[in-house]
Each structure stands twice: as structure tokens, then as C-alpha cells.
């Protein structure tokens, strides 16, 4: 299996006010195509920082973050933006654009990637069908439940057929019953469609659904479990 | 991102904040409307005045008057005492490029008819030559202007015949009117009177100028000399063979030389040039004042964009996380300001034009006080037709959009520079 994400002695220090905070202190990680990895850890352990680096939203202070073999430190802003189009990001707080309908939200990521109108329409319907929201696609986020909004966000992340999905606490903001549905959906995407998934969570129960789990603490990976 | 998608994205952001965007646009509308209204009115005014001067004041004519300035002899001592006489036309006629010249004697008099009095200016001229210089304005509407008039022939301006513009005539062709002049140099001052026969009423000239006037009465120059008891003239009008600058300049100089610089020579072209430069200054001044209001609108745009930037920090983070490039974010924000600027400019030009026309109508309705000097009977109304030149139209459009874009540059630049991680974390 091809390695698509590789972190080599990854370090990230940022300033909180004037105090330097070492969020990552030497992380080594490999993710292969088709993997389903859960990153587990308490808040402040650096798991979100790691996810941001994998998603090319930020650059490391030291070490290498390789996405499909390319070190993101060597890329300029435009190249990073291009890279992000091939990454599907799903956030804890959904981060949908409130004035757009579900379909328009999904189409937005495709219009950023220069896809034509007709293509966008079809693809949006397809991915919304995949997440089971085709009949609600003309509703705005405010008219959708938390679970539905997260499914729209997943559909948006899938729209550009990304190399992998990054999920930051995808069930952190929804009730447990809906959370189970979301996890079921994510698992299905991984097993049936072969989508590579990297998911950050602090929910032990959710992590057991993944193929592999890494435990983070204080900016380093302390344990790796293959389920 | 395709430009059409950038546009529709920006448009959706504006539509979300209708009231705010509307008020911002209103600022641009007011600024542009003020500029367009002021400029098109002054342009209209300039065109009207220029046109009237050109008709009443043929471009191939020069006006020669005695150098001390007509009627101002209060200065006494410094005065050379030079006077211009009717037969000085003979000297002028000998000068190169001069086709003819005529002397004018004018005095303020009364005209009496049917028990009514009107104050008016009596102008003594050679009818035939005067008509050939002012061929388009010294034209009879009724009656005839005789080529060799009798001593008592009188030609009256339209406003002398019909001073109230309602068909109630003061006098008409073939009426015998009394011309009364107060001779203030006689001791004791006394009224000189003679009876004139109205042989023609002139066409309406409108406005004002140096040439024929609606509120004057014309009598033959020989009669003026004997009636006013003088052969001193107020001015000599010179017709040149050509109206190019070189001819005007050389003839002006030759005339001044012939009278040892004791006369002043005014050319119509020179007056028009001065007038046009005065108007340029007025336009610049008024346009500048209006531009300030647009500047205020620009600051409003900047303010609103910065607020919008704060509110949409998270949205910008999302866009960047989805792979939008910084320059596209910049474009999205600039596009919003272009939409506001364009909308404001188009509405502003429209409402400025309407405003200009409303002002012109009000002005015209209440007008008439323009040239209604104390001494002059009747009034000359001036009609101003606002003129929207393509330059003003395009200028307003470019200026409106330009100001919007310039003031949006900073907020847009700040939006584009946001770091995705920080923008996403923004609450």
C-alpha cells in the first residue's frame, strides 16, 4: 500500500501571546492508502495541530510533513491552496456557509476547484446521495439538524474526490445516537469506497471503530493500537 | 475559481446584508449624483452663455471703446481725456483686414406711448451695416428695417414691444412713440423729446450679448448725433474679413496703434476664451466639493468592509481550508466593492441627471432676474438645458467604481492575508 501521509520528527511551536507553546514535539506517523486512523488524546495533546499540518493549513516549525511524498514546507501559499483541494476537511462545528443551501455548500468546494457548473450539480447530488441527504439538499444549514449538517460537511469534503478525509472531532457536537450514524457512514465510506480517513477524537468508543488508533499525549505519540 | 463564480459568491454576500449594502450604495449614489448634477448644470449654463454670445456677438467682430472705460470719468486727473468719435470709423476702415466698422451712440431714455412710460436704452446705429454684421439677430419680426431710414424711424426690440410676454403690447409697428431723453448737461437739466415712427419690431434674441438686445430701441446714427447733440460715440464695432486668431490679433494691434493706445479693443473670441476658462474653474470647484461627498462614501465603504471582514473571518478560513487562493479571496472582496460602486454610480448618474433637470426647470420658472438691470426695460430669460457630456458620464462611472475599489483595497488585502488556522479558530 502506498504511503500518502508521512510525518517525520514533526515539531510545531506557536506563540500564545508571548509564551511559546510546543504543540508537537517530534511526531512520526505513516498513513497508507485505504487506512482508517483514529488519533486519540486529551485536549492540548496536539492532535488538532497535527491534523492542521496534515491538511496543509499550517506549516511545521521543524521536521517534515510529506503529503504524497511532497514536503509541505517547500510549498508556497498558492501550492498549499492547490494541495488543500485534494484534502477533504470535516470540522467539529461543521463550518458550513449559512446563506447557502446544502447543495450550494457542497458545490462551493467544487467551484473553488474550477469545476464547471453542470459537473458540479451532478457531483453534488451524487455525494449528497452517498451521505443520505439528497432529499434535503435545498435546505439551508439552519433548517438541518446537527447530524444532517455534519453529513453535508462530509459530502462537501468528498465532493472533490480527495486523497484522504481529515475529521476533527466529527461527532463532538452531536448527540450519541446521531454520532453512531455518522461513524457508521464514515466506516462505510472507508470499507466500501476505499476512502482513506484520519480522524481526531477524544471518544474512546469511536476510536475502536477505526482500523488503527494512535494515542497522543503532550505533543508526542505514546501508543499505537491496531484494532 | 471562475470569474462568474467569484461574482455570484460576492453577490450572495451583498444580498445577505441588504440594508447595510443599500446604505453604503446610497453614499456612492449621493456623491455621484451631486457631481453629475453640478457638472451638467454648469456645462449647460456655459453652453447657453457661449451660444448666446456667439449669436449676439459674431466671432469676426472687434469692439473698440475709449481706453478710459466707458462712462467712468470719476478718476479725473489721470484721465487723458481721449474720446472716440463717430467719424473715427474712417480711420479704422483703412486698416488691413477690416471689412467695415460702425459707430454706436447709446443713452438711457424713456419711450412713451398711450400714456405709458418705459425706460429703455436708445441705440444709434447705421441700420444697414448693423444688419450686415448681426445678420441673424438684427432681423425684423414684423414691419421692415429700412435701408435708408428717415430721421424719425425707430426699430424696437421684442421686449419693448411685448414687455409682459402675454400679447399685451406696449407698442407695435406703425405706432408713433415719444422718445424722451433727459439732458443732464444742460442748465437747468431738461427733457429733449421727439416723435418716432416704429417701422419694425425685432425678432426675439434671447439672453444677452453685445449685439442686438430685446430691450433696446434703435434709431439712425445721424438722428442720435443731432438728438443727443454729440458726435462722440460709445463704441465702434469692427467687422473683420476673417475670424482666425492671427487676423484678430494683428487687427487689434493696428487699431490700438492708430489711436496711440488710447482705445481698448475687445474681441468676441477673447471674451469666449476668458469665459470658458472661468467656467472650467467653476466646474473644477463645484466638482471638487461634490467629490468630497464621494470620498466620505468611500470611507463608509471601507468601514463596512472592515466590519464585514471581522464578521466573516471564519468564512474566509473555511474558503481557504477548501483550497481558495489568497488572490481569489482578495477578488471576492474587491468584487463586492465593484458591485456596490457600479450600482451606486449608475443610480447616481441617473438621479443626478434628474436632479439637474429639476433644478433647470425651477431655475427657468423663477428666472428673469438675470439681466433685469434697473435701467433696462423688460427681462431676458435664460433657459439652461443641462448637458451630460460623455466625459462626465464615463468619468462619474469610473470615479464611483474607482473610489469604491480603492477604499476596499485595504480590507480585501487584510482578508486575503488571513491565516487559515487562525481564521478558523476565530469566534
Content of β-strand of chain A: 25-35%
Quickly give the structural class of chain A: alpha/beta
Rounded Rg of chain B: 32 Å
Which chains share the greatest interface?
A-B, 25 and 25 residues
Strand order of the largest sheet of chain A: 6-7-8-3-9-10
What does the oligomeric state look like here? heterodimer
Q: What is the end-to-end distance of chain A?
A: 18 Å
Number of strands of chain A: 10
Outline of chain A, from the CA principal axes?
globular
Number of domains of chain B: 2
What is the residue-averaged pLDDT of chain A? 91
H-E string of chain B = HHEHEEHEEHEEEHEHEHHHHH
Can you characterise this structure?
The complex is a heterodimer of chains A (227) and B (427). Chain A has 7 helices and 10 strands. By secondary structure, chain A is an alpha/beta fold. Chain A folds into 2 domains: 1-86 and 163-174 and 195-227, P-loop containing nucleotide triphosphate hydrolases (Rossmann fold); 93-161, no CATH class. A 6-stranded mixed beta sheet of chain A has the order 6-7-8-3-9-10, with helices on both faces. In chain A, β7, α6 and β8 form a beta-alpha-beta unit. The radius of gyration of chain A is 17 Å and the shape is globular. With 427 residues, chain B is of the alpha+beta class. Chain B has 2 domains: 3-55 and 273-425, no CATH class; 61-241, no CATH class. Chain B has helices spanning 3-16, 18-55, 89-93, 127-133, 158-161, 221-228, 245-258, 268-311, 313-321, 326-365, 390-417, 420-425; strands spanning 61-66, 98-113, 116-125, 140-143, 153-156, 176-183, 190-202, 216-220, 235-240, 263-267. Chain B has a 6-stranded mixed β-barrel. In chain B, α2 (18-55) packs antiparallel against α11 and α10 packs antiparallel against α11 (390-417). The longest helix of chain B has 44 residues, at 268-311. The model of chain B is unreliable at 68-78 and 366-380 (pLDDT under 50).
Amino acid at each position: 500500500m502506498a504511503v500518502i501521509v508521512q510525518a517525520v520528527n514533526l515539531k510545531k511551536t506557536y506563540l500564545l501571546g508571548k509564551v511559546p507553546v510546543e504543540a508537537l514535539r517530534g511526531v512520526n506517523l505513516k498513513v497508507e492508502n485505504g487506512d482508517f486512523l483514529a488519533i486519540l488524546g486529551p485536549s492540548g495533546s496536539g492532535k488538532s495541530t497535527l491534523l492542521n499540518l496534515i491538511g496543509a493549513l499550517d506549516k511545521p516549525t521543524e521536521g517534515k510533513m510529506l503529503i504524497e511524498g511532497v514536503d509541505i514546507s517547500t510549498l508556497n501559499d498558492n501550492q498549499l491552496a492547490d494541495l488543500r483541494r485534494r484534502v477533504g476537511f470535516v470540522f467539529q462545528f461543521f463550518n458550513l456557509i449559512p446563506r447557502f443551501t446544502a447543495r450550494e455548500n457542497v458545490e462551493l468546494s467544487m467551484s473553488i476547484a474550477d469545476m464547471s457548473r453542470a459537473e458540479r450539480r451532478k457531483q453534488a447530488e451524487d455525494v449528497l446521495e452517498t451521505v443520505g441527504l439528497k432529499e434535503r439538499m435545498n435546505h439551508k444549514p439552519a433548517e438541518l439538524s446537527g447530524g444532517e449538517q455534519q453529513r453535508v460537511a462530509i459530502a462537501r469534503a468528498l465532493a472533490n474526490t480527495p486523497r484522504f478525509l481529515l475529521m476533527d472531532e466529527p461527532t463532538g457536537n452531536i448527540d450519541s445516537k446521531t454520532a453512531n450514524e455518522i461513524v457508521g457512514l464514515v466506516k462505510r465510506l472507508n470499507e466500501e469506497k476505499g476512502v482513506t480517513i484520519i480522524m481526531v477524537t477524544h471518544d474512546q468508543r469511536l476510536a475502536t471503530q477505526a482500523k488503527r488508533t494512535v494515542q497522543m499525549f503532550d505533543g508526542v505519540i505514546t501508543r499505537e493500537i491496531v484494532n | 475559481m471562475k470569474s462568474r463564480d467569484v461574482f455570484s459568491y460576492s453577490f450572495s454576500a451583498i444580498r445577505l446584508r441588504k440594508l447595510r449594502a443599500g446604505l453604503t450604495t446610497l453614499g456612492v449614489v449621493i456623491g455621484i449624483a451631486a457631481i453629475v448634477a453640478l457638472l451638467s448644470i454648469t456645462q449647460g449654463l456655459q453652453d447657453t452663455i457661449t451660444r448666446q454670445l456667439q449669436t449676439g456677438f459674431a466671432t469676426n467682430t472687434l469692439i473698440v471703446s475709449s481706453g478710459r472705460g466707458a462712462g467712468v470719468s470719476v478718476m479725473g486727473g489721470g484721465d487723458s481725456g481721449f474720446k472716440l468719435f463717430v467719424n473715427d470709423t474712417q480711420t479704422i476702415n483703412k486698416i488691413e483686414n477690416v471689412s467695415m466698422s460702425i459707430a454706436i451712440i447709446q443713452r438711457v431714455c424713456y419711450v412713451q406711448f398711450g400714456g405709458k412710460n418705459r425706460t429703455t436704452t436708445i441705440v444709434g446705429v447705421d441700420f444697414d451695416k448693423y444688419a450686415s454684421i448681426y445678420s441673424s439677430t438684427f432681423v425684423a419680426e414684423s414691419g421692415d428695417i429700412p435701408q435708408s431710414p428717415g430721421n424719425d424711424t425707430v426699430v424696437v426690440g421684442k421686449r419693448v414691444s411685448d414687455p409682459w410676454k402675454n400679447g399685451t403690447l406696449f407698442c407695435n409697428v406703425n405706432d408713433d412713440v415719444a422718445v424722451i431723453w433727459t439732458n443732464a448737461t444742460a442748465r437747468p437739466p431738461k427733457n429733449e423729446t421727439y416723435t418716432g415712427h416704429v417701422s419694425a419690431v425685432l425678432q426675439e434674441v434671447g439672453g444677452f450679448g453685445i449685439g442686438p438686445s430685446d430691450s433696446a430701441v434703435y434709431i439712425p446714427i445721424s438722428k442720435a448725433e443731432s438728438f443727443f447733440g454729440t458726435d462722440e460715440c460709445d463704441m465702434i464695432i469692427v467687422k473683420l474679413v476673417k475670424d482666425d486668431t492671427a487676423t484678430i490679433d494683428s487687427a487689434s494691434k493696428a487699431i490700438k496703434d492708430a489711436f496711440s493706445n488710447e482705445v481698448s479693443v475687445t474681441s468676441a473670441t477673447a471674451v469666449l476664451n476668458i469665459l470658458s476658462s472661468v467656467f472650467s474653474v467653476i466646474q473644477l470647484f463645484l466638482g471638487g466639493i461634490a467629490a468630497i461627498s464621494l470620498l466620505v462614501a468611500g470611507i463608509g465603504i471601507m468601514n463596512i468592509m472592515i466590519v464585514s471582514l471581522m464578521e466573516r473571518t471564519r468564512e474566509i478560513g473555511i474558503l481557504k481550508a477548501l483550497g481558495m487562493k489568497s488572490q481569489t479571496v482578495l477578488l471576492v472582496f474587491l468584487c463586492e466593492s465593484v458591485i456596490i460602486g457600479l450600482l451606486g454610480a449608475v443610480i447616481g448618474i441617473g438621479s443626478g441627471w434628474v436632479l439637474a433637470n429639476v433644478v433647470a426647470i425651477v431655475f427657468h420658472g423663477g428666472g428673469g432676474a438675470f439681466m433685469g438691470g434697473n435701467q433696462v426695460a423688460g427681462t431676458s430669460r435664460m433657459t439652461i438645458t443641462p448637458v451630460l457630456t460623455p466625459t462626465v458620464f464615463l468619468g462619474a462611472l469610473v470615479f464611483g467604481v474607482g473610489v469604491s475599489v480603492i477604499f476596499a483595497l485595504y480590507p480585501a488585502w487584510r482578508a486575503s492575508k488571513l491565516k487559515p488556522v487562525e481564521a478558523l479558530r476565530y469566534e
